[in-house]
Amino acid sequence: MAVTTVTSDEHFEQLLKQHASTTLCLNFWASFAQPSLQMNTVFAELAGQFTTVQFLQVDAEELEDISESFDVNAVPFFVVMRGTEVLSRISGANPLELQKALRRAVPEQSTPAAQEAHTETAVTGQPGAADTATMATSAPAEEEGEEDLQTRLKSLTTAAPVMLFIKGVPSAPQCGFSRTLVSLLRAEGIHYGFFNILADNSVRQGLKAYAEWPTFPQVYVKGEFLGGLDVVREMIENGEMQEVLEEAGIKTTK
Question: Is Metal-binding a UniProt keyword of this protein (predicted)?
Fold first, then answer.
């Protein structure tokens, strides 16, 4: 089945009504995040395997109200649902977990052939698939050790060229510092990924030690910790922020 791109809030509501009794798989993505672009390839492949599932692609930035309604705290983010019931949520680039969630939702399509097709795609060098299959998820393991947490933090801090770790989401920050930071970056035309630290206490506490910085928000550029609100604001004011972005090969829209 082909992937349907959601174009507006109204379009999304129409699709929900049209497929009220169908299993849906939602892909919340963003063009600035490389893991999202890679997972789009996997998403399309899964749509070809699970033909009774309706696959919907949602731009997390453009359609913020929809993203917020599903508590999207990072991209890529996937939701498997039927009617109004959410069956699974997968945060991060984890194709195997997404496939498992789909198998649980539609067990009649969990065939050996489908499993073999996915495995072959992951190892034969199809564009994006091999790299994506090795990426760490932002969802914690059932018994997450320190090494697992460090791997997850590294994956999160490199999920987009510029990553924000804030309280809440950009459309609804939960503290004044996060709100101010989002406003500053938007004014500068800086594209960014984000993670809501209120949604995961392990990440929240782990980042304090990872960055050796006790407060939030935190900003990372190409996986390197840049600073908090005061540092970023000063860098913007003195022009240093633009220099850092240019050196990292990151373009702005300002």
Answer: yes
